[in-house]
Design brief:
Layout: E1 5-12, E2 21-22, E3 33-34, E4 39-46, E5 51-57, H1 64-78, E6 85-89, E7 95-96, H2 109-127, E8 131-132, E9 134-141, E10 145-147, E11 157-164, E12 170-177, E13 190-191, H3 194-206, E14 211-216, E15 222-224, H4 231-251, E16 261-271, H5 278-288, H6 298-310, E17 318-328, E18 332-336, E19 340-341, H7 343-352, E20 357-361, E21 370-371, H8 374-379, H9 382-386, H10 388-391, H11 400-415
Parallel strand pairs: 3-13, 5-6, 12-14, 18-20, 19-21
Antiparallel strand pairs: 1-4, 1-8, 2-7, 4-5, 9-11, 10-15, 11-12, 16-17, 17-18
Length: 418
């Protein structure tokens, strides 16, 4: 443990007009305009013995293959350990199709190849700008979200970590908040970072020269108070989040300059539920083929893909995932989870974590789909019963929540410095 250093960067990843957007299956054509630019932002920490990197991107999701490519490129450029690079997406539903999802039009793989290099470049730029820093963290509240399944479970905590230069001015403000970025109307056909972009821009305007990094908390079942409203509402709700982050930041004291960094991860094997039989899938395909644009219907395309597995009797399978934990001293920890995680799962991690400031982040190091609670699986609905068809072949088994919580807490307890 020595003097903490950090470097930060911001790289424009805005795509071209005409790329297909992802997030809303109702869209039937590509993007038509750019409302606001998209960015990949990276922060690298180094304590003299260990280093780690956090990246956030204004995208819906990234494939696991993209995560591996970005980590490999970044490691080759910087020497940072690939396994210590934490790559998250804000989950904006007005970003370009950046992973293999069904029902959102064709994926421009050539553009994704460039995207991967840009994100890796953001890591390199951050690593090359290391300077002595101090860090402190705090929590606020922002009441812009709701439980979209009508439950009482909600998390309105806004997490803030402020990284200061030697002169006391901020180098970076890290924010975490659990809410789906779905305020931009689906039929605007606009490229936009949604409310996280507004919150980050507010930080950067107030702290001239600092970079605001927004990470989305566990919000698989959490929506904003206004869904698909308009850009005025995007600005209003994003400003509420950004202003609260500023308030928390301005009240922080007890900055630390010497902390120990730790990074760890666990590769979990989830079990799946069974998919329908070949005969049942053929019925779905037959019905879907009569639609006007069947290739844009994700359930039809899923059934065609799933039939290949059902034909050889493979009705279930293992689903591998990576859970990652980063610890910044003995007070701040981030847990990266590769899915759209129900809020109860994030709350359980926070409640039992040994760290004072615990921030579970979804859509990190890939996204395999929704991760509901056992109760939600029993109740059914879009997230537990249908949405997996957008992402893969198999529905997750009902114990996914417990496995994610146990894995994250086990690693946090292992790296915690009492």
């Amino acid at each position: 443990m020595g003097q903490l250093k950090a470097g930060v960067s911001k790289v424009d990843i805005t795509p071209y007009v005409g790329i297909w957007l992802c997030g809303f299956a109702a869209r039937q054509k590509p993007s038509e305009n750019i409302h606001d630019n998209l960015y990949a932002k990276a922060i690298v920490f180094d304590d003299g013995n260990e280093n780690l990197c956090m990246v956030t991107c204004d995208l819906l999701t990234l494939d696991q293959s993209s995560i591996e490519n970005i980590r490999k490129i970044a490691q080759n450029i910087t020497g940072l350990k690939a396994e210590n690079i934490f790559i998250s997406t804000t989950h904006t539903h007005s970003g370009p199709l950046s992973s293999h999802l069904r029902g959102f039009g064709p994926l421009d793989q050539a553009w994704v190849d460039i995207l991967e290099k840009k994100i890796a470049g953001a890591v390199a730029l951050a690593q090359r700008s290391l300077q002595d820093v101090t860090i402190s963290a705090g929590k606020g509240q922002a009441s812009i979200n709701m439980n979209r399944r009508g439950k009482t479970a909600i998390d309105r905590e806004l997490g803030v970590a402020r990284v200061n230069r030697n002169d006391g001015n901020p180098l970076a403000i890290i924010m975490t908040y659990p809410c789906h970025p779905v305020i931009v109307p689906w039929n605007a056909y606009s490229i936009s970072a949604d409310y996280p972009g507004v919150a980050s821009a507010l930080i950067e305007e107030y702290y001239n020269g600092a970079i605001g990094l927004f990470f989305t908390g566990t919000c698989g079942d959490i929506n904003p108070l206004a869904v698909c409203r308009d850009f005025n509402e995007v600005k209003r709700l994003g400003t509420i989040v950004g202003a609260e982050a500023l308030r928390v930041s301005e009240e922080l004291t007890n900055f630390s300059s010497e902390i120990e960094l730790k990074a760890t991860k666990e590769n979990l094997i989830l079990k799946s539920q069974e998919i329908p039989t070949a005969d049942q899938l053929k019925e779905i395909i037959n019905a879907g083929s009569k639609m006007e644009n069947p290739d844009l219907d994700w359930q039809y395309v899923w059934a065609k893909d799933a039939l290949e597995y059902a034909n050889v009797g493979k009705l279930s399978d293992d689903i591998p995932i990576e859970i990652q934990v980063l610890a910044l001293g003995n007070e701040i920890a981030f847990a990266g989870i590769p899915g759209e995680v129900f809020v109860e799962i994030g709350l359980a991690i926070k409640e039992k974590s040994p760290f004072k400031f615990t921030f579970p982040i979804e859509c990190t190091n890939g996204c395999i789909g929704y991760m509901p609670t056992r109760t939600a699986f029993d109740e059914g609905g879009y997230e537990p019963a249908l949405a997996f068809k957008l992402f893969g072949i198999y529905p997750m088994d009902i114990d996914v929540g417990e496995k994610v919580v146990n894995s994250a807490l086990k690693m946090m307890n292992n790296v915690y410095i009492s």
